[in-house]
Structure formats: C-alpha cells, structure tokens
Automatic annotation (TrEMBL), chain A:
Domain (2Fe-2S ferredoxin-type) ranges: 2-80
Classification via InterPro entries: 2Fe-2S_ferredoxin-like_sf (IPR036010), 2Fe-2S_ferredoxin-type (IPR001041), 4Fe4S_Fe-S-bd (IPR017896), 4Fe4S_Fe_S_CS (IPR017900), Cytosolic_Fe-S_CAF (IPR050340), Fe_hydrogenase (IPR009016), Fe_hydrogenase_lsu_C (IPR004108), Fe_hydrogenase_ssu (IPR003149)
A GO BP entry: ATP synthesis coupled electron transport
Domain 4Fe-4S His(Cys)3-ligated-type stretches: 80-119
Alphabetized PANTHER family for the sequence: NITRATE, FORMATE, IRON DEHYDROGENASE (PTHR11615)
Residue ranges constituting the 4Fe-4S ferredoxin-type domain according to the UniProt record: 139-169, 182-211
Family: Belongs to the complex I 75 kDa subunit family.
Main location: membrane
Organism, scientific name: Alkalibaculum sporogenes
UniProt-recorded Gene Ontology molecular function terms: 2 iron, 2 sulfur cluster binding; 4 iron, 4 sulfur cluster binding; ferredoxin hydrogenase activity; iron ion binding; NADH dehydrogenase (ubiquinone) activity
Keywords for the protein's UniProt record, in alphabetical order: 2Fe-2S, 4Fe-4S, Iron, Iron-sulfur, Membrane, Metal-binding, NAD, Repeat, Translocase
Subcellular location: Membrane
CC terms in the record's Gene Ontology section: membrane
The protein, known as: 4Fe-4S dicluster domain-containing protein
TrEMBL record, chain B:
One Pfam family this sequence matches: SLBB
Keywords: 4Fe-4S, Iron, Iron-sulfur, Metal-binding
Protein name: NADH-quinone oxidoreductase subunit F
Superkingdom of the organism of origin: Bacteria
Organism encoding this protein: Alkalibaculum sporogenes
Amino acid sequence: MKNIKIKVDNINLIVPEGTTILEAARKANISIPHLCYHPDQAIKANCRLCVVEVAGSRKLTPACSSYVFEGMEVETNTKKVRDMQKGVLELILANHDQDCLKCLRNGNCELQALCQRFNISKTNLEDSVDALPMDNTNPSLVRDSAKCIKCNRCVDACQKGQEVHVLTHSHRSIHYNITPAYEMPLEQTFCVFCGQCAAVCPVGAIVEKDDTSKVWDAIYDKNKHVIVQVAPAVRVALGDAFNLEKGSIITGKMVAALRRLGFSKIFDTNFTADLTIMEEGSELIDRITNDGVLPMITSCSPGWINFIEGRYDHLLDNLSSCKSPQQMFGALSKSYYAEINDIKPKDVFTVSIMPCTAKKYEAQRPEMVTNGVKEVDVVLTTRELARMIQSAGIEFDGLEEDQFDNPFGIGTGAGAIFGATGGVMEAALRTVYEVLTGKGLPTLKFSDVRGLDGFKESSIDINGLEVKVAVVHGLGNAKLLLKQIERGESPYAFIEVMACPGGCIGGGGQPIQSTMDVKAKRIESIYKIDEDLPLRKSHKNPSITELYERYLGEPLGEKSHELLHTHYHSRDMKYNFEELLK
Amino acid sequence: MTKTVSFITENFDKYDPNSIDSYLNINGFTAVRKAITTLSSGEIINIAKSATIKGRGGAAYDTGRKWGQAAAVQGDNKVVICNADEGEPCTFKDRSILSKDPFRLIEGMIIAGYTVGAQNGYIYLREEYRHLKSLIKNAIKETMEKGFLGKNILGTNFSFHIHLHSGAGAYVCGEGSTLIESIEGKSGRPRIKPPYIKECGLFQLPTLVNNVETLAAVTAFIQNGTDDYIKYGTKLSPGTKIISLAGNVNKPGTYEIPFGITLREIIYDIGGGVVDNNKLKLCQLGGASGTIGSDSILDTPYTYEDLEKVGLIVGSGGILVVDDRTRVIDFVKSIQDFFIHESCGKCTPCREGNRQIAKIIDRFVQGTSGVNDLDTAERFANIMKNCSFCGLGETAQNVLLSAIKIFPDEFKRLEAVGK
C-alpha cells in the first residue's frame, strides 16, 4: 500500500494510504477527542468531537472520517479547534444526566474523562434532560436514556455486529433517541441480552443490571451456604479492572479475592464445562450413530439460545439439549452438592461469575429449577465482581494465589478453552474422537477452529467417517449457518455458536473496552491455560469420573437427563398493536 | 417595461401540461431529439459549461463541471436523480416548473442520462407536492408512449427510464445523500462522505443529482442555444434565474429574472412593493437556511458575486420580504422552530445546538433572557456552523448570526428587558 506523508501538529508522519486523521494522530501520540468512534466499528462521525483544522480547508474536518492525503497538514490543538471541541462537549453534557457519582460508569466513563480533559466546570447551558423513561424491567440490562449521548455505538453493535436489529434510532431532531422499535422495553423485543451494546457504550446509558447487593445480602445471611462458580473467560479479563496488563491470567488471585469476600466454597465452571463435553459429546455420538437431527448445535451461549428461540424457532431440534455449564453447575449445587454436604437445597445460595449479561436472563428461566429451587441464585458479570472486590477494599494485585475447592474445583484444559470461540468444538472433538476411535488424537490443537475469523470450519476423520464441523461467533455469522440448515444444505455434523464476537472472552459482561486487540490477548491466555494444565481432555477429569460413578451413572442417563438437559421453546413474540397505537 | 424575462419559463402557460401532444405542438422534445441524435456527451457538457449555469438547488455548483465528472466516473449502470424535494420555506419555483412544464424537466433528465451514461432516472418529489404526482406520472407515461423514454430511444442505443419517488416530508431529504437514503427506504439522515455520491450513490451506483430548474434550463440551452441565455445577466452571473418572491409583498409569486437587477427592482417593481406601503424590515434570501439583510441591501444587484459581498446568497432563489410589523426576534424564532422540527438529530451540534439555542431564543421572545444569553447563543450557533455533519446544521443558524450582526440594537434591547 502507498505511504502518505503528512504533518500533524508539525510532526512529520508517514502513514499508509487509507489511514484516518484520528488514527494517524495516534501514531504521533496525539489523542483527538472522540465518543462515537470505536476501533472495531464502522465510522459514524456523528458526535463531532474530533473536528480538527486541515490546511487549505475552509471548514473544520472530522478526524475520524477523513482520510489522509499527501502533504496534508493537520492542526489538532488550535484555539478554534479547542473552542469548538469544548463547545460540542458542553452540548452533549447539557442533555446528559449528570448523576456521575451514582453512575455505574463513574471513573470509567469516556464522557467524564473528556470533561476532565477539557476542564469543564460551569457552562451557560441549561442542564435539563429530555429523555425516555428508564428501561430496567429485564434481568440483564438497564437502559437509561437520560445518559444516552446518541453516539450509535450500541446500534452498530446490535445491528451490524450481532444482526439482532433491536436497538435503532427513532424520531428526529431533539426527539432523536436510541431505542427498540415503538420504545418497547427490551424483554418485549427480540433482544438476546448479549450485552454487546453495554460493552461498547461510552457512558452509563446501557449497563448490566447490578446484582451485587443480593450477593452481599446472601453472604451476610447466616442461614445461607453461599458458593460461587467462575466461568473460564473471567480469569483472563478481570485483571483489566485492576489495571493489569490485558489478558493477564489471574486465576489464583481471583480465587483468593472471592474467598476474602466471604464465599464458603469457590468452584470452577471449567469443571461443568468438562461435564458439558461428556453430555454433549455423547449426544453428538448418539445423533451421528442413530440418525438423529444434524447438525447438532451447541447450547452453552444463552445469547445464542435467545436468538434461535426468537428468530429461528423452527430449528430448535438442532440444538443440543444440554444445559449450559453455568446451569449444570447450578443443578448439581442444588442436588449432588447439597446431598453430600447434608445441606437443604434451599439453603445453598449459588452465585455465578460470568462474562455475560445473558446468563442473568438464563438463570431466571422457569425451567432452570432443581429440587424446587432456582439452580443459580445470582449471576454477576465480571464487571460486578470487580466492583465487589473494590468495594471490599481488597488490594487485588497483592493477593496471594489461592486454589479452587473440591468437588468442583478441577477443570481440564478442555473446559478452560470454552472461554474462546472454537473452544467448545475443540474440547468436544478431543473427547468424541477418543471415545469413538479408542485412540488419542494425533494432535490436541485444532488450529482450524481457533482465532477470530467469524466463520471457521474443519473436518475430522472418525473411523473412516468424515465429520465436518463449523464454528461461528457473533450472531450475524450464526445466521449464515442457520440459513444453510433451512435450505437443507448444511454439510456439518456439529456447529459451535457463541453469541459474542470472540466467544465468552468478548462477552457483554467483561470489563469495558474489550476491543478486538484485547480479545486476541485474552484468547492467547486461554490457550496458555490449556497448554499448562496436566489434564486437557474432559473425560480424563477424575472429578468427572467420580461424579458419574457416585451420582449420575452415565452420560445421557436418567439422572443426567433430569439435571443436565433441558428443552427450548419459541419466544412467541406478538406485539399488541392496539395497545401500541393508543 | 417588465423586468421579468422568459427563457427557462418560456413554455409556462403555453401548453397543456397534461398532454404530450400539446407539448409536441410547441416544438417539444426537439431538445432530446437534437441531443441524442446529433450531440456527443462531451458536446452537451460543453454547452452546459458555456452557459456557466450553477446548480439551482442552492449549493451553486457548476453544472457543466458536475456533468463532466459524472460522465467520467466508470460504471455501466448509473443513475440521474432530479431533486424535486423543494423544501426551503419560501421556495416554490420548482413547483411552478413541475406543474406548468413537466415535459421540459423530463427532457432535461433524458439529456442528463444520455450525457452521463445513466439508464435510470428518479424524480424525488417532496411529499407536500403529492397533488402533482398524477400530472408527473402521466407525463412520464406519455413520454414512454411516444418513445422518448424506454428502450432504444429514437432508434439509438440509448435506453432510459424515469421513476417517480415521493418523499415523506423531511426537509433534510433535499440534501443529496439523505435523499438517496430516503429512496432506498431508510430514514432520512445524511451519509458519510467519502464515498461521494457521484461514485457511490443510489443503490451504490454512480449518481448525478440535479435540481428541477437546472434540468429544465439545460433543455432550454439545447433547444434554443445559449446565446439567448447569456445575453442576460452580468459577466460573473450570466443568464436568468427563477425566483420565488414571498412574504409581505403585494405580488408574491414565481418570476424569471435576469441576473443583475437590484433587489429593489425585484421587490418594488416586480413584486409591487411591500403590503400596505409598510416599511421593509428585512429580507431573507435562499430559503430558511439563508442569511438576512436589512433595507440597506435593496440596491444590491441580484448576482452571485454582489450578494456575497453583503453576506447574502442566491441559494434556492427564495426571497422573503418581512415588513416592520415583525420583530427580528420573532422572525428568528419562526426559523428556529423550523429547524428544530427538521434537524434529523444524527449529529450533536445540530441536535443539541438547536435544542439549546431554541431555549435561549424563547427567553428573548418572552423577555426573560439572562446575562450571557446572547453570547452563548452566538457561540453555539458558530459551533453548529463549523461542526455539523451536513449542510442543514451548518446553515441552520445563518439567520440568527446575521440577525445579531445586522440588528444588534434589537438584541441589546431585549437583553436589557431580561435583566
């Protein structure tokens, strides 16, 4: 590609053709203010904070949407630029609810940071916010229109990234708003609760529903036995909240922090990820050998489940009947675990730490009940766990490493890689291959299904049968495979779908600013965890063997069916238009 | 002696716009016949260049140049759009052409299509002109029937179709890229540039967008030559212009005038003066997004160059006369009300700027303005002008900014009331 010579604030730069002014300035360590720009999204140029002066241009130029040209001279810090940028910021602020001290994004808000940068103290504008009512009646997300700055990042995430098309813009001028159609609350739309909107929101306009106080209450309740499980993707992301290097593996410190918070037992969801492989792998073998519905599609991602139940409910038979690892854990906690510890199921209080906002929704599903009680009582996102740790005054970085407890403390490398796109597939193949062929895999590394490509496929020869598999992440990519199945043209036996781009490491509940670069680092760490573990195949997990011997019997057995499998149903969404038109 | 002329409007009231036969009787379609059977694309572009006509929608971009660029863009499939979303308040000259001479416009589109190599043309008609739909549809149909539209027009290799598309009432859809979004069925919000619409416009195809008057004028150039056109006007603004004269004048209406006559001649000689012999307070040129002038500009010749010197624009050709019964602030408020209704809301400066400035203007109107209100309004008006995404936000505060400049005392007085 051609290189272009430009000057930014008198600094000579050589950048490739097709670079924007904003990106070029970064190379000179100049951060041009911006709010709608997001490195993983399309250019929007609607916040207008990034205006700069370009020599020869009468008008100011938006840096995010303007490409460099040979000899371009950019000034990012003239009086005019500064005055204009500050003015635009004041305009945004004047229609933004300024309850910053009580906002979940306090200290982690891009608007707040810019106001600090521009030293905005008092303006002549009236601070009165025109907004829609709060949307907080679903279990996962809270949308506060009074804080929305209309940057459209969430719309991009919902429409282009996920192709869910729930969030959109409505009306115009001062009534312009970001909302689902007809301003419906999210639970009355086809929202899948993946939380990708919350993950890209620069302010506190879309956040996870904070459930930390429920957990504190349980911990302080003497009658409750409070246990916690942590998903595979949390341990490579939580460090972000404590300013550690992106992708840091902080498993030991995380366990130590959870113990200090007062949980009675700290367990690993990697364990039930292994259990999922036992059940799901057996289900796949059963479907292949007994002419079952193929391709079989994974069912561990609740955002994905919400999607297929909403939009492709005629393909529900393709879903594995397995509950997700979170719910398998929950079911065991209220049955096996309660029994062996002689605690009443209702007194076990099960908390999940998940990278995911849809898990909150999943835990509320009426079918996720074992022995008459909710399998998982509260789901916290990675962000909420970070807030609990901070709130308890725990200095995270200085903690001594601790270890997960038994009986759900051992997870194999196969369970660990559930956190990355392609991980479930790879873990399943490690086990299925060995069970069906009686031989170990030639290599444990399925490179074809690793990495951030949206669509990945591979095939494996099992006893002379070519088994084709596919892996997608991001719901837009999932649509392609679903359409293939609809046409009866799917060549695959097994498909892994993760709702969020990158898989769970890119979940909607992960620390803010999980850009693609950050996700790549987390994925690297996930595979490092796998490589460093002595056990890397689910069926070799000794605790799993013990669980089947002592309690479950065998995969797909009666007990397994009762506890570990479920049914899916259509999200029969009917709008009441009469009501709407009132 | 009348000061109006008839070059672009020469067919007005000369034939029945419902009948192509009636149009053919006055030498209709000689321009199309001449263009596609005797002229090359380059020759037509040169004719447009020799007339030095500038776009009549408001942006005043050189038409010959625009066509030259459109013809040069590579592409087997191109589109010509006639922008008939005449949304500027106090602008209705395109309506006159559409209702009195629709065939001349259709000829202009066919010639444009032939020149730039397009196969399809779209007329984007503003929603409020829905009463003209059947007239235009009929004109397209009859033109098809006579073989001036459709496949292999007049036995040549050139094929061209025209489609009529109605807007949904948004002013911002007069902006080229927004208009295209609207035809595509999306909400009317401007597109990011690049890519430019000349390369990637409607349905991602190279697209030429021209105003109604521009296209009608080109037909006249081809039919009558440009000599009779450029004999009018000044050196820098040759030719004629159709204006929409409205407001507190005795004879509002559409008039074709030669460039170079003064605003006084337009308002008093053509328009019959201010109603009830009231004193002229101000006039606004070029629609709601145009600036205003006081009576001191009455002797300014109506040309691109002379108006620019006094801070005014030709724009859409609207001339709104306001007499001294109206307070400047009330006029400013009426324009502000318009823009707060018509901003698309996409970008911060236009959405939030209009919101805040409207609050301040309301305080002025009600006599409750605060100490810094005037400075604040002016500051944010300038931010809108400099930072907005599209022309709507950039020009929405032209009225306020020019009013503050021209009538400082009125604002000072209002400010004093508020204190």
